[in-house]
Amino acid sequence: MIVQRRAVPAVLAVSALLLTAGCSAGDGGAPDTGRTSAGTAPARSASPSPAEPTPPAKGTVKVVRTVTEGLDTPWGLAPVPDGDLLVSSRDEGTITRIDADSGRRTELGEVAGVEPNGEGGLLGIALSPDYAADHMIYAYLTSASDNRVVRMLYDEKKPAGEQLGAPDTVFKGIPKGVIHNGGRIAFGPDRMLYVGTGETGDRGLAQDKDSLAGKILRLTPEGEPAPGNPFDSPVYSYGHRNVQGLAWDDKQRLFASEFGQDTWDELNAIKPGGNYGWPEAEGKGDDAAYQDPVAQWHTDDASPSGVAFARGSVWMAGLKGRRLWRIPLRGTQASAAPQDFLEGRYGRLRTVVAAGGDKLWLTTSNTDGRGTPKQGDDRILELEVS
């Protein structure tokens, strides 16, 4: 079985298409009421409980402000308890703290061992579920040999640039490629670490349950297969092409975004042991062996990366689509056709993070080699949504 992992000590020291990207002339103004794309279709899924509320079919998005700008290849985004933001740079291999009020930037340091190449580099970041006590930052990175998850002590008392401890490898052996490295990590409501991986362009790996590629993995914070996993391995679901978004709704159900190839991008409701079809299926199908998506999009309209849940909907950032999608939910069904917002206004959109209530953080991704950077790119935006 191709699984390599190393548990770290329990006690740790604590002290490819180019697309011209649009750019807004300014922030704020009247909320964007969006539109529904005729090329986008909700997919059938399990029926929700009759007691579950249904969000309005139509929502709005207001860009409140630009929090900061001038970022280089921002990828992962993680709010810290005081409301500030940590952002990773894919190509620079650094983590930077953003003052959420002033936008002032403080570089924590460079993560050792990052080897940027193509879509690989320093990707997703997440705070330990015990961050208040252990001050640990988890990161998904591309090394010289593989993709892996590491964790580092964040010591705010040290000088800027020296605040990250040496990375401890929590989990390794995830295949890497120039493309399709996945990279999103998130701690779930169960305090387990979920990891989205890509199939690196080698399609057959997605259906191989003994491979870590093209999967969603579920791990303990120490990097062991989480209790209750369906295959007695790190694998939680399989048959994925390139998972780059993970989010839970208010009922603790997991949703994930996925890049399609030429036809359909997907938002999926994730079931333990579920087979999501790639490369045998793309989008909705008639084969009961594969899980149908909650919603699907033509690839020019989405190429999805990060997802977040707020106000009864999943919000999904689109790279090639250069827009933000709202997918209203009732249970694990799309209760109405998805709406798109901000089309072309800020270019490629990478990561969206819920900030409580009606607030989202959103990052652009125009310096990633596939966009056309404008003055101010890349940036973090504060959104108000309904």
UniProtKB/TrEMBL annotation:
<dbReference type="Pfam" id="PF07995">
    <property type="entry name" value="GSDH"/>
</dbReference>
<feature type="compositionally biased region" description="Low complexity">
    <location>
        <begin position="36"/>
        <end position="49"/>
    </location>
</feature>
<feature type="domain" description="Glucose/Sorbosone dehydrogenase">
    <location>
        <begin position="71"/>
        <end position="370"/>
    </location>
</feature>
<dbReference type="InterPro" id="IPR011042">
    <property type="entry name" value="6-blade_b-propeller_TolB-like"/>
</dbReference>
<dbReference type="InterPro" id="IPR011041">
    <property type="entry name" value="Quinoprot_gluc/sorb_DH_b-prop"/>
</dbReference>
<dbReference type="InterPro" id="IPR012938">
    <property type="entry name" value="Glc/Sorbosone_DH"/>
</dbReference>
<keyword id="KW-0732">Signal</keyword>
<feature type="region of interest" description="Disordered">
    <location>
        <begin position="24"/>
        <end position="59"/>
    </location>
</feature>
<feature type="signal peptide">
    <location>
        <begin position="1"/>
        <end position="25"/>
    </location>
</feature>
<protein>
    <submittedName>
        <fullName>Glucose sorbosone dehydrogenase</fullName>
    </submittedName>
</protein>
